[in-house]
Amino acid sequence: MTGATTEDPKQQEDPRAAKRRARAQAYAEAAGAGWKVWLAKIVMLGIIDAASVYAIFVLAASGEWLVGAIVALVTIAVNYIYLRPGLLPAKYLTPGLIFLFVFQIFVVLYTVYIAFTNYGSGHNSDKEDAVNALLLQSQTRVEESAAYPTTIVENFGSFFLLVTDPDTGEALIGGEEQPLEPVADAEFDGSKAVAAPGYTSLDFSGIIANQGAIADLSVPLTDDPNDGYLKTTDGSTSYVFISNMEWDPVADTMTNKTTGVVYRDIGTGAFTADDGTEILPGWVVTVGFDNFARAFTNQDIRGPFIAVTLWTFAFAILSVATTFILGLFLAIVFNDPRMRSKKYYRIIMILPYAFPSFLSALVWAGMFNQDFGYINQVLLGGADIAWLQDPWLAKFSILVVNLWLGYPYMFLVATGALQSIPEDIQEAGKVDGAGVWQVFRLIKFPLLLVSLAPLLISSFAFNFNNFNLIYMLTGGGPRFPDAPINIGQTDIMISMVYKTAFVGSMRDYGLASAFSIIIFIIVAAVSYIGFRQTKVLEDLN
Amino acid sequence: MSFEDPITPGSRPAPHGISDTVTRAEGASTEEVVTPSASAGERGAKEPRRPFGKYFRETGWRHLIGIVMLVFAGFPLVYILSASLNPGGSLLTANGFFQVISFQSYIDLFGDPFRPFGAWLGNTIFIGLATAIGTVFLGALAAYAFSRMRFLGRRSGLLTLLLVQMFPQILALVAIFLLMSAISDIFPALGLNSQIGLIMVYLGGALGVNTYLMYGFFNTVPASIDEAAKIDGAGHARIFFTIILRLVAPILAVVGLLSFIATTNDFMIASVILVEPDKQTLAVGLYQFVSEEQSKNWSLFSAGAVLAAILPMALFLSIQRYIAGGLTAGSVK
What are the Cα distances from residue A480, in Å, to A169, A291, A486, B155, B305? Predict the structure, then answer.
């Protein structure tokens, strides 16, 4: 990297001298900055460093060593870049690049990783958590077990049970995943421990306010989860609960004590009995190409998936085509120098482009409503047409609304491109005996396409992922009746990803990420082909 | 807001800058057509009246098409305005145009604790503005480096920016959600349900198409200005903040506005990250509002929609002349 010089360093200098000269220049540049710049720099770096040090401590405390190390390295690099004279390009690029790497590049790589796992409902943490959750799920109170007098105490937002052992009378304290341990100098009220040093005891109103969290609290008696847990229902006494499942860490099995069925870890991310029944929650494991295989081979998913893919292409292509045709037509119509009041038409005609798009879809959804909407009730005099419920009509409605949303943009860019075509082309054509239509078809239109092609490609890419319109207008419906995942006739790929991952009770992050990657590949291929045709990349100097 | 015309300072022609498209776009959206040959018969030029048949053949039919388009373009907007003035109205009563005129629905909007419309409006403006300012700032820094400095990896960096914008962030939504929930476990203030966290996610897209637009515009500012300032003893930071940023103000406004509009229109990321109603944006809140009971509360929704649309539309119309230029920038060769 060199400094901010825009001319090449002189050729005949030997490299050492050149280096020295560059460094001298960098120092001169740094010295030229005013004290305000320096002050701002120091304050900003101070804030960043303070935040980073805090973050590194927190990360180290929760055992995230790798992330902590990365934060430390990035912080050191940032300080180096901004405190050392020179390195100008890095000084200007670093802030944006940090965000770009975390929220654009890293998340894409992370998507690839998720696509090869079974991440989703029932599989969203590691094995240890799954074992604990399974044991907690099947707890029942131990018959005839002793009652532990209890005080609820709180420390840094987490709740703990301060109990008195009914046999020995000693005070013990424990919390979620923190087994009971003796408290040295607890305060007693009679024989019941009521306060412990470093903890705040909750009074009755505090217990009422945090009822849910306290009822969910299970405190392991010992390090071995099979020994059972203390739970309280009223905040003043706790009972021992013991799980109906038994966890054998050595054999790596879960055994149901009532039925005697043994569940084993067979590598699928959940304990599975010999007859193939799984008990959930399971944990995250990598499953190779399973998610992709499901998308392409699973009978119930494959049909809808292919239908959605085809509709996505049809929707994107038809949207670009219809908006472009209307926009270009209007641009030609209003490109008449003798026409008055063009300006007013223009302003009204681009209003749909200015109106927030998520609202447009909602407004149109109201107008298309089958029972009460304006279109059925007023325009068609009380007709009962299922604009958004019938598969084909819903697709038609989507295209109409997208035409309304999209033609102003095409109108604007086509007008700009039309006016860049010199008028004498028309004259020259006339001299050669061509009519207006011929001149347009053979000369102007190809010229327009050359300059608008990149915009048409980006418009295609935008519509390919036009989530708002689909989700707000039809919600992707009507639904495919026999698909196991919630997708419908008008879903496009991006709304399919969203619904697979975030709508309904079964969330399948792995499958959704696999769909995402398929979209990535399609968009990349289409853009590559398109831009290679337009040779836009050659313009980079 | 008012902006001076984006003059192209200096005389160095921009190879693919946006200056020429900006002027062209001005011709597109104002009456002043740039090319002298096209300005024959402009407003103000006295012409003899044409006979009606000839007039209709030449320009009259254009007005007919214009009127059809006005109805098509304007109807939904008029419809929603009329529905919002009909308090307590449902979808069915919204079909009568302007039969009742009352602002009651606008008042009711702000009085419902379960649907904190005021909070949504505030959140949307806050998140949109913060993202727009951040995007403009980060993008301008990067564009300055690409435009004024020569360094290893510059060309491939520009190429990467072009490629990155083909893959919108929403494709990685699942990963963003899981990343944010992991951050929540350690820093609750930046993870799920945090507006700061959401803004940070949006800023991930700051270097992209916007930087490219700015880069093209920065190239139209002649380097001799930088040189002159340097000779006078200004450092690079002073040149950037006090000279360059002022010269490229129009493109900063366009990028800021595009970023603001894109942010306020985002439903996917916001709906996944913002959980509590009090933290949500208009897009998320109004969608849930309608999806619950579309036909009953149509009037309230309409009032919300009108209020939500006023600011973006006003901003858009105020600088639409530059937007047309911004749209075609970087694409016209």
Answer: 64, 20, 8, 47, 32
- pLDDT of B327 reads 53
Best of B174, B224, B254, B265 to mutate (most A CBs within 10 Å, chain A): B174
Asked if residues A138 and A280 have their Cβ atoms less than 8 Å apart, the reply is no
Would the pLDDT of B332 be above 80?
A: no
Q: Do A419 and B28 touch (CB under 8 A)?
A: yes
| Token couple for B262 | 């894109």
List beta partners, residue A167: none
pLDDT at B92 over 50: yes
Considering only CB atoms, A409 lies closest to which of B92, B150, B327, namely B327
Phi, psi of A201 (to 5 degrees): -80, 140
pLDDT in tens, B212-233: 888 888 888 888 888 898 888 8
Closest CA to B178 of A507, A493, A467, A522: A507
What's this model's pTM, rounded to 2 decimal places? 0.80
Hey, what are A445's tokens?
């239109």
Closest chain A residue by Cα to residue B333:
A451
Report percent pLDDT > 90 for chain A. Answer: 23
What tens digit of pLDDT does each residue of A153-191 get?
Answer: 887 777 888 888 888 878 888 888 788 888 888 888 777
Q: Could you give the C-alpha distances from B193 to B198, B270, B272, in angstroms and in order?
A: 8, 9, 9
Closest CA to A94 of A109, A74, A110, A108: A74
Chain A: nearest CA to B162, how far in angstroms? 9
**Regarding beta strands A178-182 and A192-195, do their DSSP bridges make them parallel or antiparallel, or are they unpaired?**
unpaired
Please state the rounded mean pLDDT for residues A84-93.
84
Contacts of A68 in chain B (CB under 8 A): none
Each residue's pLDDT tens digit, A245-275 = 777 777 778 888 777 788 877 777 788 877 7
Identify all chain B residues contacting A388, using CB atoms and an 8 Å cutoff: none
What DSSP state is assigned to residue B124?
H
Question: B314: buried, middle or exposed (CB in 10 Å: 19+, 13-18, 0-12)?
Answer: exposed
Closest chain A residue by Cα to residue B208: A100
Residue A345: both structure tokens together: 């038409």
Task: Look at A87-101, A145-159, A437-451, B24-38 and tell me which has the smallest mean pLDDT.
Answer: B24-38
Query: Which residue shows structure tokens 């929707």?
Result: A315
**Radius of gyration (C-alpha) of chain A in whole angstroms:** 34
User: From the CA atom positions of chain B, what is the Rg in Å?
Assistant: 24
Partner residues linked to A158 by β-bridges: A155
Assess whether the previous peptide bond of A281 is cis (omega < 30° from 0).
Answer: yes
Using CB atoms, which residue from B142, B290, B325 is nearest to A96? B142
Closest chain A residue to B136, measured at CA: A96
Mean pLDDT of chain A: 83
- Taking CA–CA distances from A502, the nearest residue in chain B reads B272
Mean pLDDT on A99-110? 90
| Chain Cα centroid distance, residue A329 | 39
**Could you give the 3-state DSSP secondary structure of residue B255?**
helix
- Per-residue CA distances from A124 to A102, A269, A276 (Å): 22, 10, 21
Q: Does A62 contact B185 at a Cβ distance shorter than 8 Å?
A: yes
> Residue B141 is encoded by which pair of tokens?
């820094």
Among the partner residues B66, B77, B287, nearest to A355 by beta-carbon distance: B77
Q: Please give the full DSSP string across A105-130, using - where no structure is assigned.
A: IIHHHHHHHHHTB--BTTB-S-HHHH
